């Protein structure tokens, strides 16, 4: 795979956002990024995607995300990490893993607990195992005060029940890669949760319902993400070799969501970035770079 900007992205896919963007869900520890990560980061900067939240779905990937954030600190692109255990791996949860996760959450690069939650679609771990690991991670978030990065598939009612019981104990939480229906959306909004949207609504096969729902999400609750290397938008104006999604394509998702919300790309970029910086407790300096803000967080 080439390490050069020009050889990888076709001209038609070199987007630039009108205002800085935060990609709240980038799986850059995935093996597909191992050979050309520096070029991926350069392309993100060129697209005005200035902040990346690297998803830690288990102990190994959380540690890799932290190391990646440290390696690239001060290089013009702000990288942060999450640390959690995905519901697919919930069967692995035990006391040793709980201790390890608690230690990872104390690292300054970690800005959220997760990816954690419930997935009753595939049930790689049993529902009982998923709920046990999820509630354990909710307890960790309640103790350390960090926001939650949540995963949910086909488990909306049970997810809402659990979160309702914990709502007074935890701070902010975002349901990342939201793809569910209207009732589930409003259930989450009623719990004062945030919503992360991906290129799912760019999919003509299954994203139509989201196009109707995006106007119902307040700008103070909405954030953008690629969930790369997954969920490559199907309506890109040019084909992408290898079909691997990456942060440089977030401005295309911005454009699509702005269209369906009936607002300008600049307005949406500014609003979602402000929401993400507030949610993850990031600050912007004069150079536009972001860092941690560990002061007490108050929701707007």
TrEMBL record:
<keyword id="KW-0479">Metal-binding</keyword>
<keyword id="KW-0378">Hydrolase</keyword>
<dbReference type="InterPro" id="IPR032466">
    <property type="entry name" value="Metal_Hydrolase"/>
</dbReference>
<dbReference type="GO" id="GO:0016787">
    <property type="term" value="F:hydrolase activity"/>
</dbReference>
<dbReference type="InterPro" id="IPR001130">
    <property type="entry name" value="TatD-like"/>
</dbReference>
<dbReference type="Pfam" id="PF01026">
    <property type="entry name" value="TatD_DNase"/>
</dbReference>
<protein>
    <submittedName>
        <fullName>Hydrolase TatD</fullName>
    </submittedName>
</protein>
<dbReference type="InterPro" id="IPR050891">
    <property type="entry name" value="TatD-type_Hydrolase"/>
</dbReference>
<dbReference type="InterPro" id="IPR018228">
    <property type="entry name" value="DNase_TatD-rel_CS"/>
</dbReference>
<keyword id="KW-0540">Nuclease</keyword>
């Amino acid at each position: 795979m080439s390490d050069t900007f020009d050889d990888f992205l076709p001209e038609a896919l070199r987007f630039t956002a009108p205002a800085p963007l935060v990609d709240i869900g980038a799986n850059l520890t995935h093996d597909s990024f191992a050979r050309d990560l520096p070029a991926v980061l350069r392309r993100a900067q060129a697209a005005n995607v200035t902040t990346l939240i690297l998803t830690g779905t288990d102990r190994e990937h959380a540690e890799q995300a932290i190391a990646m954030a440290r390696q690239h600190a001060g290089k013009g692109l702000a990288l942060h990490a999450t640390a959690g255990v995905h519901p697919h791996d919930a069967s692995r949860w035990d006391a040793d893993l709980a201790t390890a996760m608690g230690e990872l959450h104390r690292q300054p690069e970690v800005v959220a607990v997760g990816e954690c939650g419930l997935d009753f679609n595939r049930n790689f771990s049993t529902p009982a195992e998923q709920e046990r690991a999820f509630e354990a991670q909710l307890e960790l978030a309640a103790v350390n005060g960090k926001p939650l990065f949540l995963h949910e598939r086909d488990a909306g009612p049970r997810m809402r029940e659990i979160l309702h019981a914990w709502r007074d104990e935890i701070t902010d939480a975002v349901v990342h890669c939201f793809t569910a229906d209207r009732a589930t959306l409003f259930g989450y909004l009623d719990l004062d949760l945030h919503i992360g949207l991906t290129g799912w609504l760019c999919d003509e096969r299954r994203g139509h319902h989201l196009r109707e729902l995006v106007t119902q999400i307040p700008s103070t609750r909405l954030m953008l993400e690629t969930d790369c290397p997954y969920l490559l938008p199907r309506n890109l104006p040019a084909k992408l070799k290898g079909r691997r999604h990456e942060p440089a394509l977030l401005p295309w998702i911005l454009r699509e969501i702005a269209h369906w919300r009936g607002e300008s790309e600049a307005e949406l970029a500014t609003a979602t970035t402000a929401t993400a910086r507030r949610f993850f407790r990031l600050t912007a300096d004069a150079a536009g770079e972001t860092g941690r803000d560990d002061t007490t967080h108050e929701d707007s």
